[in-house]
């Protein structure tokens, strides 16, 4: 029994059901991430225009402590970045700029959390579905071949099934490769 026949046997014995369960699990996982991210972004959203006006009012009066209180009361990312700069302002503009850049990088990490997983799931879900389709087609051709078609027809069916098995193997390799690529690029 060669590799194609073994793979075909494995695909036929498993069927497409495991692929469907995997797709359901991936869907649940992606919905959970989407809900968590929506909750997170809702929690850090704020009225930036109002915050800017309040901050400008405090700074025009020379009230740095009041400006800090205004920024500390906000949960927005913008407030945390400006607050980092304000706290270093007495050391000069360069120190304030560096503090703000550092705070922006920390905030970005939180903002991008789990988004790479969503990107990976989104780009790979069609491949997983196609993999299940290929398994189903292999099963269909196997059944047609077993139904007792003419010898020539059975040979054609076997050849098509063999080609589909190769496609299935290619997809099985491509799915984790794309996931790894997205992970490394992150």
Concise summary:
The chain has 186 residues and is mostly helical. Helices cover 86% and strands 0% of the residues. It starts with a helix and ends with a helix.
Number of strands: 0
CA distance, first residue to last residue: 42 Å
* Order of H and E elements: HHHHHHHH
Helix amount: over 70%
Low-confidence stretches: none
Class from helix and strand fractions: mainly alpha
Annotation field: number of helices = 8
- Determine the mean pLDDT: 81
* Overall body shape: rod-shaped
Largest sheet: none
Radius of gyration: 28 Å
Strand content: under 5%
Spell out the blueprint of helices and strands.
Blueprint: H1 3-14, H2 17-44, H3 48-60, H4 64-73, H5 77-87, H6 93-111, H7 115-146, H8 151-185
Helix pairs in contact: 1-8, 2-7, 3-4, 4-5, 5-6, 7-8
Can you tell me about this structure?
With 186 residues, the chain is mainly alpha-helical. It contains eight helices and no strands. Helix 1 packs across helix 8. The chain is rod-shaped and about 90 Å long. The mean pLDDT is 81.
Can you tag this structure with a few keywords?
186 residues; mainly alpha; 8 helices; 0% strand
């Amino acid at each position: 029994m060669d590799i194609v026949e073994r793979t075909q046997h494995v695909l036929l014995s498993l069927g497409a059901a495991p692929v469907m369960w995997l797709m359901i699990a991936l869907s649940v996982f992606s919905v959970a991430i989407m809900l968590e991210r929506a909750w997170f972004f809702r929690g850090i959203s704020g009225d930036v225009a109002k915050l800017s006006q309040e901050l400008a009012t405090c700074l025009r009066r020379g009230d740095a402590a009041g400006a800090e209180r205004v920024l500390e009361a906000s949960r927005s990312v913008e407030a945390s970045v400006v607050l980092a700069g304000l706290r270093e302002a007495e050391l000069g503009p360069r120190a304030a700029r560096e503090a703000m850049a550092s705070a922006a990088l920390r905030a970005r990490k939180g903002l991008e959390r789990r988004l790479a997983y969503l990107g990976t799931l989104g780009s790979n879900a069609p491949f997983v579905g196609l993999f299940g389709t290929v398994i189903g087609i292999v099963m269909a051709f196997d059944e047609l071949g077993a139904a007792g078609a003419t010898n020539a027809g059975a040979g054609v069916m076997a050849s098509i099934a063999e080609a589909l098995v190769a496609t299935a193997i290619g997809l099985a390799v491509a799915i984790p490769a794309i996931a790894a690529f997205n992970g490394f690029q992150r």
